[in-house]
Design a protein that fits this description.
single chain; 5 strands; 14% strand; binds 5-O-phosphono-beta-D-ribofuranose
């Protein structure tokens, strides 16, 4: 974390969500985005969740990332109380592997959107928050460009390894569907 006022709030529904959210915190750190982290639950501590949301803008926050599992109402409840963009991360903590959380987050009623990333896809939430902030932060936009370049290079490296093992072209028939 940095001494500068936080621009992104990362709110998790339970301490048990923290491990899955670490890649989100790591990318925010890597991109030098000041952020804060807290725990609040839409069901178990609704007043605390409301407080986080209604004070967010006046505290200088620009984006909220909210992660929760089971019937994950946390991102939606936060979005009900603020006009800041809210990014929801469905967590796979439930017996049905997070599909419940995904639907709860993505199926927001008309007028109160939440941007949903994939189940447990915490790093994407951090990158999306960065992309929103980069609209008015050219140095951050430059850091994001470098990140995309790293991602592109890693695909090139994968391609080089695969070609090294299999040769220039795929083995004959490998990309064709099985024919009986
Ligand atoms: C949700 O319930 C949390 O976001 C967490 O994913 C899940 C389980 O919470 P704990 O029982 O581990 O606190 O509210």
């Amino acid at each position: 974390m940095s001494d500068k006022p936080a621009q992104v709030a990362v709110v998790i529904g339970s301490e048990s969500d923290l491990e899955i959210m670490r890649p989100c915190l790591a990318i925010l750190q890597e991109l030098k985005i000041p952020h804060e982290v807290t725990v609040a639950s839409a069901h178990r501590s609704p007043e605390r969740a409301r407080e986080v949301a209604i004070t967010a803008q006046e505290r200088g926050l620009k984006v909220i990332i909210a992660a929760a599992g089971w019937a994950a109402h946390l991102p939606g409840v936060l979005a009900a109380y603020t006009t800041l963009p809210v990014i929801g991360v469905p967590i796979s903590s439930s017996p049905i592997g997070g599909l419940d959380a995904l639907y709860s987050i993505v199926q927001m009623p008309p007028g109160v959107p939440v941007a949903a990333v994939g189940i447990d896809t915490a790093r994407n939430a951090g990158i999306l928050a960065a992309q929103i902030l980069a609209l008015s932060d050219p140095p951050l936009a430059e850091r994001l460009k470098q990140l995309k370049e790293q991602i592109r290079k890693s695909v090139d490296e994968q391609a080089a390894r695969v070609v090294e093992e299999w040769g220039q072209s795929a083995p004959r028939g490998a990309n064709e569907p099985d024919r009986a």
